[in-house]
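Work Package 3 (structural annotation) set out to generate three-dimensional models for the target panel prioritized at the project kickoff. During this period the team completed the workflow that converts sequence records into discrete structure tokens, so that structures can be stored uniformly alongside our sequence database. As a representative example, we reproduce one entry of 339 residues exactly as it appears in the project archive.
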Amino acid sequence: MGIFFSGRDMTDGDVSVVRGLGEIDGLLGAIQRGETSPAVVDMLCCEGCIDGPCVSPESSVFAKRAIDAAERERQPPPAVDSRTFLSALPKIDLHRAFDAEAAPVYQPTAEEIDNVLAAGEFTNPAEHLDCGLCGYDTCVEHALAIWLGNSTWTMCFPLERKRLLREHERLSEASLTDDMTGLLNRRALDARLAEETARAERYGSPLSLVVLDLDNFKEVNDHYGHAAGDALLRAVGVLLRAELRTADIAVRYGGDEFALVLPGVTKTGAWAVAEKILGSLRTLATDTDEGLRVNATCSVGVASFGEAYRDADALLRGADSALYAAKRSGRNRVELAAG
């Protein structure tokens, strides 16, 4: 293993020439140990380009060099050198020319720009903000850039903010809405009932809670299938919305139970509302997929805000107690909570 130096002085370490992995390893080890610090290293992982299919890999580098030199001497010189050969070939024109042409620019029509603006929820010029946040001076310029494919409406920050707020409202509403009936859900009931009881406490206004439970609803599912049961629940939701005032709150309490929050309604008034709904439900019929008609009745419990029921939990317990009293009394009836 040896390290070859370019200069005649073997102690000159400015330039080091190494061939083969062994010599490279030796040089790197010497550099690591601080024995040398060449400014330039001429390094090859092989021992020179003298290997080939006819050269034994076990031969030493000196034997390989001898074989290569002998092969060069054996080959006769070419009759014509390459430069002379190339000069005799016909000349080929390798140049190409192009005429520059202006890129076609298409201008959209006013209708096309209006369609782009409408996609950005700008349906008339009065809605144009021209705020410049998108990088364009006007909404029309931005619409042109979008038409050309150079921008999108996601660059319109006011529009993105409006869409974000709208999606937030949609998700908030969805979290409080029952998917089956479109009524409010139990989570919404807890919040709204707490608000209404606090208002009744503060202003001394009447407040009533009505809880309804469909009679023998499990039999509907068992005999006609869950699709028929779901259709009945949706029909009850439609009926409740039709029978109530705008200020009233209809809730799918859970399963086949419903609740009605009636602000400003006394116990007597709530009883009248419950009887009216019970009568409407008796005439309600839902068609099944098999063409059968499903009728339903319900048991109803009514409780009103007062000395016995001063908060939302107490009011709900009172209405539930009256509901189960209606069930024990034969169902298909309204019962008032005591107190």
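The chain has three domains: 4-66, 110-163, 181-336.
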